[in-house]
Amino acid sequence: MPSPKTSPDALTGLFPSEIAERIQGPPLRGRQLFQWLHKKQVFDIHAMTDMPLADRTRIAENHAPAALTPGVLQSSPETGAQKTLYELADGETIESVLLSQGHRITLCLSSQAGCALGCTFCATGQAGFRRNLSAAEITEQALRLTGSLGEDRTNTPNIVYMGMGEPFQNYEAVLKSIRLLMHPEGLNIGARKITVSTAGDVAGILRFAEEPWQVRLSVSLHAGDDDLRSRLVPLNRRYPLKELHHALLQYQEKRNRQITIEWVLIKDINDSTAQARALSGFMHGLDATVNLIPWNAVPGLDYRPSPLKQRESFIAVLKQAGIKATLRKERGDDIDAACGQLRNIRHGASEPKG
Ligand code: SAH
Ligand code: SF4
What we know:
The chain is of the alpha/beta class. It has helices at about 15-20, 25-40, 55-60, 125, 135-150, 170-180, 200-210, 225-230, 240-255, 275-280, 310-320, 335-345; strands spanning about 70-75, 80-90, 95-100, 105-110, 110-115, 130, 160, 195-200, 215-220, 260-265, 290-295, 325. It has 2 domains: about 10-60, Orthogonal Bundle (DNA polymerase, domain 1), CATH 1.10.150; about 70-335, Aldolase class I (TIM Barrel, Alpha-Beta Barrel). β3 (about 95-100) and β4 (about 105-110) form a beta hairpin. Iron/sulfur cluster (SF4) binds near residues 119, 124 and 199.
């Protein structure tokens, strides 16, 4: 039997009705296939035993069920996080992270192979852009990670779009993947358990505000003035802070949902009390919490993680201004840090001291 070939256009990126159309079969066949792929995480059509053998053979011969080939799996004993490298049909590679914290499971998905935005502290940004991922390539990361849990799967996982890439620069495919992951005949993940993280793509934020659902939004801010932010997050030159702030106000008017502001603390770059005050200013009028993340070292980059004392002074300023903020004292104990950190495992970097 030929081994199933992979394709960016695989069946894992289609709704039941689209699958039926693609395989030129009845609606029931589309639903059966969808359930095997999404609910049971079985990607081998020959193993889909409730379908007639002749159908299975015909579908397997003509259609690629899957988009990803799982590669190296690496674990971080420090965090309990697992990173899987996936190969795409054209040889590109992406990575996804599974983080278990007690019963809480979080899956960190990539939306692009690489990233075009070039944030100066980010491993993906430094490596450059390869291409957008298809809906199948995004969705299937979550399917395969869930499948790898086996019997350990107790609760529905949380999904965060915080792996490689800028989700709003691949809007359509990301949105379709969210809808597929929320599908009641598949993983059936609740909108509130899904978070999309953006570097501040204003056009994307405004578009996202129009989506009639409760999917969460997270914004990676990292700097409270345009000079510094344009240096760290070059996208700020296109969408400066004032515009970003305005877009977030509009988002909240429409969606009425609390957002998260992400801030990676880098020593002597954005960890001063002056930056904390600037951040307090940005928070004005927003219903948001701040998530302070220790910077994870990237080989070849000349930054350092912010020392604990500085991190504590930073959060003290926020608290004084009445802003809700969380500070990770230990590196790598949340998914944001885990996403970045696992990139290090790939490159074999050692842990620097704050
Ligand atoms: N492009 C989107 C989502 C992917 S990046 C965004 O920028 O939001 C996900 C998160 O990881 C972002 O908050 C980003 O700032 C953070 N990040 C990137 N590199 C990191 C590093 N070396 N250490 C810690 N966090 C990092
Ligand atoms: Fe891209 Fe996000 Fe990395 Fe910036 S932080 S380069 S937007 S992945």
